[in-house]
Amino acid sequence: MTIRQMILEQLQARRQGYTLARPFYTDPDYFRVDMETVFYRDWLFVGHDCEIAKPGNYLTLQIGDFSVILTRGRDREIRALHNSCRHRGSRVCSAEKGTTAKLVCPYHQWTYDLDGTLQYVRHMGDDFDKSKFGLKPIHCESIEGYIFICLSDNPPEIGPLRETITPYIAAHQIRDAKVAYKMSIIEKGNWKLVWENNRECYHCAANHPELCKTYPEAASVTGVQGVMDDPEILAHWAHCEAAGLASKFVIDPGGQFRIARMPLIAGAESYTMSGKRAVKKPMGPNTKMPGIGALVLFHYPTNWNHFLGDHAISFRVTPIGPEETEVTTTWLVPKDAVEGIDYDLDELTHVWKFTNDQDRQIVEENARGIRSPAYEPGPYSAEDEGGVMQFVEWYAATMESRLPECETSLSVVA
């Protein structure tokens, strides 16, 4: 029996409403199949347009075995390229970010334009055709300031995601924002544990004192159950939509993404210790109005977000190994907001810096317990962990639909 067949059988036999079996969180072979079946085939959030705002700006990132460059060309187009020289395979860019007129491989100085076309080589003979040896492109799309890539030759349709979320996030003008602060932490736990922890606030009261000053613990705010029947949420949507802000709960039929505008604790305007806005300038004209809460967007497998009236926060999940996950948090503010005048950086970042570190500790303790041979799948709370169950159902359904397929080429766009 192959590892794929074994995983498929376990998923089909799993008990509904219970956590996954131990190997799904610990086993290197299961992790490899996760990467091949999910991360190398789905659209992944990788960064923001404003991070590569000018021609020549670039970012690099590692997704499993794939090294990726994001560039802004002289034509102002954003592109994703495989960071592997077409000569002997060296990484072309090793820095995390930078600005350059050309992409020059440090090994033998093969030189590429920002769009990946090969422009200069030495000593390759008169019959060498440079047009056949450009950096390989990766499917890349920008949606309202969010950059998504897909490593597969045949990416899923991105239209439904674009059409669903654009009316919601456009009001926050992320394309015209700037990065106030960005940080990454390593959580020593499987990527699914990171997501499961995120998808419930059952743990919040005991673990997140800073966040709980402004963020409600109600399962209808964090999860999926009860959201359409919660009178507070219904009133909040009416309040926000009167100001021209799309707000109502929408979930992808396949469960991969969902978006809704949710209330904060009464009187709170932002994720700060005081509950007051951290940034004096609004994210957009329609976000000036008080009481708009937080627009929350979740997109599996890589991204969750909170859009507030004064700033936005994106979180990117990048698996590193079976029991190691990088979580990158980016705080975005209006591009004309000045640090020290319009906002204090510590006030802006305090709540989520603490919350992220608390979540890291939670995930790592969860992972340590799951490593025990005594671990067995346990029941989720139907009242408080509906969001977790929804994530696990999405994961299981995605894997079950793809695992029977033949081993496929793991992506490179020719």
UniProtKB/TrEMBL annotation:
Essential cofactor(s): Fe cation
Asked if the record carries the keyword Iron-sulfur, the reply is: yes
Query: What are the boundaries of the signal sequence?
Result: none
SUPFAM superfamilies from the xrefs? Bet v1-like (SSF55961), ISP domain (SSF50022)
* Keywords for the protein's UniProt record, in alphabetical order: 2Fe-2S, Iron, Iron-sulfur, Metal-binding, Oxidoreductase
**UniProt superkingdom:** Bacteria
Indicate the segments forming the Rieske domain, all copies: 43-149
Keyword Signal belongs to the record: no
* Molecular functions (GO terms): 2 iron, 2 sulfur cluster binding; iron ion binding; oxidoreductase activity
Query: What InterPro entries does the record tag this protein with?
Result: Rieske_2Fe-2S (IPR017941), Rieske_2Fe-2S_sf (IPR036922), Ring_hydroxy_dOase_asu_C_dom (IPR015879), Rng_hydr_dOase-A (IPR001663)
Protein name per its UniProtKB record: Rieske 2Fe-2S family protein
Q: Which organism is it from?
A: Martelella mediterranea
